[in-house]
Write a structure and sequence with these properties.
Shape: globular
Largest sheet: 8 strands, antiparallel
Number of helices: 5
Number of domains: 1
Order of helices and strands: HEHHEEEHHEEEEEEEEE
Distance between the termini: 42 Å
Number of strands: 13
CATH architecture: Sandwich
Strand content: 25-35%
CATH superfamily: q2cbj1_9rhob like domain
CATH class: Mainly Beta
Radius of gyration: 17 Å
CATH topology: Jelly Rolls
Helix content: 10-25%
Structural class: alpha+beta
């Protein structure tokens, strides 16, 4: 497995602005949000309570998830939005695009958690430092990919963009699995990266307009295993909606 190309904390904004990506170590993420790793570890329990994804079109049962939507104003005010469907156009998600997917909402105790709130706010602030916006429309996706059926696919849609401005992928936990290699490519260019996120709370930040990403399937080392991630998308021009549906 290839180690991730960690970005020096002080150069995170420059990397994201100039290269279209940055990889933050757990220590750097803790420094960004103002909490140590012990406090981040308390969030892991929320990933043990994720309902199965009922929308997988490949017939698999390897993905569990929840979904929540937020609005951040002036990089300082975090507001949980009314629960809504997750929607992407088929141009960005050929497998699951074009349909409204109603996932179970985030747990109330997670929503009120101060570490969770800091993650959303501080990443928004970092993005605002390189791409100022009066508001960010955020979708938060806690995922668990398991290997109960022998294999789990973190990105069954393949290499893709999400149709947003920025994407954060945070590894929360990785237990009893092999594989799961992260691959990042320039949409228009020659840069390509391959590495494996192994350490909890390592974060990949991407400019979604510039970079394409995917994660290879995971397999169990023993009887079974799982890979937990938090994917957060940031968009300036409202949430993605079906054509003709009013923006919130």
């Amino acid at each position: 497995m290839l180690n991730p190309p960690l970005t020096p904390f002080e150069q995170t904004s420059d990397y994201l602005r100039d290269r279209g990506y940055a990889v933050m170590s757990p220590a750097s993420l803790g420094k960004l949000i103002g909490f140590d790793l012990i406090e981040l570890e308390t969030l892991k329990s929320f990933w043990h309570d994720l309902p199965r994804d009922p929308y997988l079109k490949d017939g698999g049962h390897y993905r569990s998830r929840r979904h929540g939507s937020y609005q951040v104003k002036h990089a300082s005010t975090l507001e949980l939005m009314p629960h809504r469907a997750h929607w992407q156009p088929v141009t960005y998600n050929a497998l699951h695009g074009g349909i409204e997917r109603w996932f179970e909402p985030l747990q109330a105790s997670l929503v009120s958690n101060h570490v969770w709130q800091a993650i959303l706010l501080k990443i928004s602030g970092l993005l605002n430092s390189i791409d100022p916006s009066n508001q960010w429309f955020i979708e938060a996706h806690p995922f668990r990919i398991d290997t109960t059926g022998g294999i789990g696919r973190p990105t069954p849609e393949g290499a893709h963009r999400d149709g947003v401005d920025y994407v954060a992928v945070i590894l929360v936990d990785r237990i009893g699995v092999k594989g799961g290699e992260t691959r990042v490519f320039e949409a228009q260019g020659s840069i390509g990266l391959r590495f494996t996120l192994e350490e909890s709370w390592t974060m990949l930040l991407l400019n979604d307009a510039r970079m394409i990403h995917e994660t290879t399937p995971i397999q169990p080392i023993g009887e079974t295993g799982y890979r937990d991630t938090l994917v957060i998308t940031f968009r300036k021009q409202g949430f993605q909606e079906p054509i003709g549906k009013d923006q919130q």
